[in-house]
Amino acid sequence: MTFSPRHLLAVLALSAASLAHAQTTNLLNVSYDVAREFYKDLNSAFVANYKKTTGKDIKVDQSHAGSSAQARAVSDGLDADVVTMNTTTDVDFLADKGLVDKEWRKRFAGNAAPTSSTMLFLVRNGNPKGVRDWDDLIKPGMQVVVVNPKTGGNGRMAYLAAWGYVRSKGGTDAQAAEFVAKLYKNVPVLARGGRDATGIFLQRNIGDVLVTFESEVVSVDKEFGAGKVDAVHPSASIVAENPVAIVERTVKKKNTAEQAKAYIDFIYSPEGQEIAAKHNIRPRNEAVLKKYASAFKPLKLFTVDQYFGSMAEAQKVHFNDGGQFDKLYTTR
C-alpha cells in the first residue's frame, strides 16, 4: 500500500500525537468539596511548572465531594494518586486500610498539612438576622445550614468549632453539649458536603446562616456573583488543617510516586501557597501569609488538640456511631 504525501503526513501526525499522549503522566487528586476551584488553578500552575522543570508532560484530574465520602471511594478502589483532605481522620482511615503510609504525617512539612482554614458564617446580603457570633445561631427561629459531620470534614469542623467556642469561654463539656444540641435543633437539613451546603443555602434559598470554611467566600463570589452573601467572623473558631498524602496503592500500580510527590511539593512551594491565599485558604508559608494578611481577619483560634485531645479522639467520642453527635441530633 502506498500513501500520498498528505496521507503520510497525517499518519505521522497521528503517530506523534499518540506517542505524546502515551508519554503524558496522569495524576488523580481526590479532594474535599469546597477545594474545587483552588485545585483547578493549582493544577494548571503545576502542569506548567512540571513541564518547565522536567520537560515532561503531566495531566492532573480532580475529584471532589464530602471528604469522608471521598476517603471511602478511595478505599473502595478509586485510583487516587494523592488525597488532599480537610481533616486528618479521613487520611488516617486510608492509612488504617494500608493505602497510605502509616507515617504519612512525617512525609511532608507541618504534619503534612500545607494549608489550613477556619470556620465562619455566611449570611445573606446585609445580614438581615444580625448574626454576629455563635450565640446567635441558637436563637429561636434561626435556621442554620451545616454539613453532616458523618459525611464531611466541613461538618465535623463546624461541630467542633461550636463546641470549642463554649470551651474557649471557660464553659464545661456539659455546657458545650447543651449549646451544640440547641444549634442542631435549628438545622433544617444536613448537607452531604461543603458545596452541597452552599447550594442548599444559595440555590434552594434555605437557611439564615451557612457555617462553612473561610475559603468558601471566594468561591461563592465567583460562582454566584459578589454581594450575595456577607462573611461574619465569630469571636472564636477552630484551626482546620488540610492534610495531604500519597496513595501508595495507586502510585505503585501506576509508577507515579515521583510525580505524586512533586505535586504535593508544589502545594508547599511559594507559587502554590500564593494560589491558596488567593482562594482564601490560609498558607503555611509565613512570608505568603504576611503578604495576604488583609485577606485573613485575625480572630481567636483554637486547635482540635486543645479541647478534644486529637482529631482521632474527637472522631471516636463525637462522630462514630452512637457518639455525641448521634445522641444530640437524634433527640431533637
What is the CATH superfamily classification of the largest domain? Answer: Periplasmic binding protein-like II
Strand count: 14
Assigned CATH class of the largest domain: Alpha Beta
Distance between the termini: 78 Å
Total domain count:
2
Largest sheet properties: 5 strands, mixed
- How many separate helices? 16
Helix content: 40-55%
Give the overall shape: globular
Radius of gyration: 22 Å
Secondary structure elements and their pairing?
Layout: H1 5-23, E1 25-32, H2 36-54, E2 58-65, H3 67-75, E3 82-84, H4 88-96, H5 109-112, E4 115-117, E5 119-124, E6 144-147, H6 153-168, H7 173-185, E7 190-191, H8 194-202, E8 209-213, H9 216-224, E9 229-232, E10 236-238, E11 240-242, E12 244-246, H10 248-254, H11 257-268, H12 270-278, E13 282-283, H13 286-291, E14 300-302, H14 304-308, H15 311-319, H16 324-330
Parallel strand pairs: 1-2, 1-3, 6-7, 6-8, 10-14
Antiparallel strand pairs: 3-12, 4-11, 4-13, 5-8, 5-9
How would you portray this structure in words?
With 332 residues, this protein is an alpha/beta fold. The chain has two domains: 20-116 and 241-294, Periplasmic binding protein-like II (D-Maltodextrin-Binding Protein, domain 2), CATH 3.40.190.10; 119-238 and 299-330, D-Maltodextrin-Binding Protein, domain 2. The chain has 16 helices and 14 strands. The strands form four sheets. Strands 7-6-8-5-9 form a five-stranded mixed beta sheet. A four-stranded mixed beta sheet has the order 2-1-3-12. Strand 1 (25-32), helix 2 (36-54) and strand 2 form a beta-alpha-beta unit. Helix 2 (36-54) runs antiparallel to helix 12, helix 3 (67-75) runs parallel beside helix 4 and helix 6 crosses helix 7 (173-185). The chain is globular. Residues 15-21 have low confidence and may be disordered.
